[in-house]
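User: quick one - fold this with 6-O-phosphono-beta-D-glucopyranose bound?
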Amino acid sequence: PRAEPCVLVIFGATGDLTQRKLIPALFSLANNQCLASDFQIIGIGRREMDDARFREQLREGVAQSSEIRAFKEAAWNDFASRISYLSGNFLEPDTYQSLAERLAEFSTANRLFYLATAPSATPVIIQRLADVGLEREDRGFSRLVVEKPFGHDLESARELNRLIAEVFEERQVYRIDHYLGKETVQNVLFFRFGNALFESVWNRNHVEYVEITAAESLGVGSRAGYYQESGALRDMVANHLLQLLALTAMDAPVELDADSVNDKKAEVWRSIRPMTSDEVASRTVRAQYVASTIDGASVPGWHEEPNVPSDSRTETYVALDLRIDNWRWAGVPFYLRTGKRLARQVTEIAVHFRQPPLSFFPCQDCLQSNVIILRIQPDEGISLTFGAKEPGTSRRAVPVSMDFCYHSAFAEAPPSAYAVLLLDALRGDLTQFTRCDGVEAQWRIMTPIETAWAACDGVSLPTYAAGSEGPHEADGLLEWNGHAWRSIG
Ligand code: BG6
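Assistant: Sure. Structure tokens for the protein plus 6-O-phosphono-beta-D-glucopyranose:
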């Protein structure tokens, strides 16, 4: 279904996110006839430039985007004619006056404000929008899309929610987490609740432990300034990984609508008790990568990256053992890990089932137990590992797997996460966005970890070689319980 007519206003229009993600996603939506004919984009940025220059800049991003498989000049020109630029400072009331005047020229009164700006700009933009009445929905809708990071701890997230609530109603607010737009992530609920087979064993009676991994082989690129302040916990765990955890662990929602789904996720997060500082010491590992050689090329360590202070204590890797204290999951560890500059890019959820009560077959003990692996990216798919009899006279059991692979099962590549979520926002569907209580519940779990870490600022951090599987301390986290990470090598 098509999106409603709308003017999309992007704050931070000359930034990386707009160029690399938002515009390619919108262009692909336009190519697939998903946008209304009355759809317009206004980019706001501080730099002085005319529409033609702005469009040219965006064109470069689109032409380089892997999302656009065949770039057609005519299609781009048609799309670009809907884009205009407004140069202005976010702090200045004049900018909003000009914006209001510009918006009044369009026939549609529907507006979507996308904040692709530094988080510190969010409060003032919201306030200034309200000063000129742009949050009002007299003749059409007014919606706000807020990017992560949503605050940097529980207190700041609460404050931000409070500020937003003074101006917008919750149903107008789209807190975006791009992981929720990924096809494989959306499939988690379909896999679990669309099949009777799996859900009956999806609980503490059958599951031994769950691993959620988001490993990246790349470093921080040009984002060291941001990452230095955030670190792996805030950048990846406080949002993306906790979303994956919630989708894996939540109970069935009453319906597949925004409130029902967000209610069930919030229950999961609320069931995770915030850690004490002793628990932080025994159930979390943070580390930094050090220089190494990958495929013959030397790769710098975190401290040698441009713009990183030599005494930086920012973690580029984190592993956690989280516990969900509810009837379904009590006693089952949920291990989360993520890091930059690891051996390979892989995001997956691995659900490990208990061993059979008795083992008859030689070598059965050395088999991995049954594991369901939801491969989020790359090589998207789902596999189930189990033991089979080795052919011939052997009585040995060997590990084999059943495999579902998106590329072979479906001809068409899925749309990008941003395309999916932008379309949802244009259609008014909040199901894949985080509700105000959700972000607070996420920070309630994360903030005690940050606080306990900050309190041990004299202790040196574990390290791992760039291109490796992570610090050996992370193995210890699982060995303690007789478990082991899956290899990411
Ligand atoms: C972003 C983080 O939210 O997600 C980045 O800020 C990270 O540091 C990125 O690289 C990972 O997203 P994806 O879609 O490539 O897994």
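One thing worth noting: The mean pLDDT is 94.
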